[in-house]
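Subject: design request, 531 residues
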């Protein structure tokens, strides 16, 4: 690409020798693996709806209920500003933040599949605890168990999908995680719409139904293959080759299998994988994948809208049922965005989607802020026309996020890390993501109360920063084999100045030269002759 942003054409190696086809075994693995996203999505959707249900507020947050009904049909930025209420939401993400480091150990030592199963069990227990909650303590304990499940699932599922997929369609396959997340949100919104009419225990049904996807994922995971990358990493070479052949539908997997073995050998030569993230040669992965993208994904303001969309719409003067219905609309927009992204990400690339969506999201937030500054917060009901403008603007924001920062926020970090630090790197990704998720969740209602319409200007400003970050620092990774992505940074206009300063850079460069030399030889030579 112009301007020094190297893409797939810049990478040399064995990629052109990779063979295979889309098999039914591969499709099954993708479907079952991707449903880990439904845990995350269902909780995002169900939490936002339950916190606006009167029966739930009466039992656990009577002060919020009284404040809400004192001005039921008036606009008020501060109706739901209650730190204990927001703790109900954010406690899950703090728990996920801590659990992801345990997930890293399980994922590396026992495989991606094991982490998915542990996450499903924890999520099931959390759903059961929340459905049976008799007091606030039980509610928070249930949220912590749900958080642990999400920590394990979000750590393992993006890795699983990126590793199991053929490199030419890795983007679309990885985005199944985002698609099932969006479907989980939409299902939760629909569930909330109906359970809101069941008094006084409808909220228990909403929370308890979290056990359904958890059960489905656990049972499905019993039949999942482990990824060849993980099997090679753990020294199970024969099994890795068997799975690779079965997933690719061919015995001609020599080139891809050699890349996996070389990546594994490099991984075993590295001591202290978390410490290795700080090495100069890994600075691009640290800045872009581990810190920048997962933080910016949350600082876009999207999850705040998802968490509190019913609350936002009620604060805007919509009735209870109308606000839940509006949440179904925004959930549908997320699904549409995810589908668009799956179709376009491997055709147009990651950068194009990031940049286009950034412009659309900024404009949407400016419209929302302008309308609220002029029409909102004066103790009057919003007109239907003004309300419609707000819903349309929010939907345009949501659909843009749905094809950019939503799916790509998980796809790109899962691609960037080399095998030796992929599990540790993904743990940092999830940790940073959930930290900012929790922080934004805990602060958003208070920020909306005090900054008023300015909170949306703040999000628009952050999206400007995010877009510039992508334009300047992210190389294009479309259709580049996952074990060769580290080569992109050697040719990037900025990162090549950084990685070449590392004393071990020449060792990495030797791997690149060897891969290029092997790529020029047909048939593929053995690993012994390469050595």
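Subject: RE: design request

Done. Sequence follows.
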């Amino acid at each position: 690409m112009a301007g020094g942003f190297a893409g797939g054409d810049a990478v040399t190696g064995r990629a052109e020798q990779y063979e295979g086809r889309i098999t039914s075994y591969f499709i099954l693995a993708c479907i079952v693996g991707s449903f880990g996203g439904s845990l995350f999505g269902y909780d995002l959707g169900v939490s936002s709806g339950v916190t606006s249900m009167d029966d739930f507020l009466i039992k656990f947050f009577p002060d919020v209920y009284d404040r809400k009904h004192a001005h039921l049909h008036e606009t008020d930025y501060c109706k739901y500003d209650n730190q204990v209420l927001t703790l109900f939401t954010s406690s899950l993400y703090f728990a996920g933040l801590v659990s992801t480091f345990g997930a890293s150990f399980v994922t590396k030592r026992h495989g991606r599949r094991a982490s998915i199963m542990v996450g499903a069990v924890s999520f099931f227990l959390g759903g059961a605890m929340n459905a049976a909650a008799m007091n606030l303590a039980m509610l928070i304990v249930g949220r912590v168990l749900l958080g642990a499940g999400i920590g394990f699932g979000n750590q393992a599922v993006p890795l699983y999908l990126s590793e199991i997929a053929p490199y030419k369609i890795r983007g679309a396959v990885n985005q199944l995680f985002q698609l099932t997340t969006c479907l989980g949100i939409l299902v939760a919104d629909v569930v909330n719409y109906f359970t809101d009419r069941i008094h006084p225990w409808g909220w228990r049904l909403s929370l308890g139904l979290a056990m359904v996807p958890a059960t489905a994922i656990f049972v499905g995971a019993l039949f999942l293959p482990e990824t060849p990358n993980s099997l090679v990493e753990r020294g199970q070479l024969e099994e890795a080759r068997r799975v690779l052949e079965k997933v690719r539908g061919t015995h001609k997997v020599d080139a891809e299998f050699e890349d996996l073995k070389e990546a594994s050998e490099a991984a075993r030569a590295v001591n202290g994988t978390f410490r290795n993230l700080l090495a100069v040669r890994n600075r691009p992965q640290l800045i872009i994948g581990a810190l920048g993208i997962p933080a910016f994904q949350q600082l876009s303001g999207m999850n705040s809208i998802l968490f509190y969309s019913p609350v936002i719409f009620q604060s805007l003067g919509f009735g209870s049922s109308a606000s839940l219905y509006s949440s179904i609309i925004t959930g549908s927009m997320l699904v549409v965005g995810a589908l668009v992204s799956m179709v376009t990400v491997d055709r147009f690339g990651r950068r194009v989607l990031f940049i286009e969506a950034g412009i659309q999201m900024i404009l949407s937030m400016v419209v929302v802020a302008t309308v609220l500054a002029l029409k909102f917060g004066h103790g009057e009901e919003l007109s239907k026309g003004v309300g419609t403008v707000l819903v349309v603007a929010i939907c345009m924001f949501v659909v843009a996020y749905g094809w950019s920062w939503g799916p790509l926020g998980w796809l790109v970090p899962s691609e960037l890390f080399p095998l030796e630090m992929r599990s540790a790197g993904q743990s940092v990704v999830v940790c940073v993501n959930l930290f900012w998720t929790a922080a934004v969740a805990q602060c958003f209602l208070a920020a909306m109360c005090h900054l008023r319409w300015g909170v949306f200007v703040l999000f628009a400003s952050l999206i400007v920063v995010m877009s510039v970050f992508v334009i300047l620092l992210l190389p294009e990774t479309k259709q580049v084999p996952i074990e060769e992505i580290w080569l992109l940074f050697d040719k990037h206009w900025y990162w090549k100045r950084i990685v070449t300063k590392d004393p071990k850079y020449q060792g990495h460069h030797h791997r690149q030269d060897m891969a290029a030399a092997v790529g020029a030889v047909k048939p593929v030579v053995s690993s012994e002759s390469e050595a």
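The mean pLDDT is 82.
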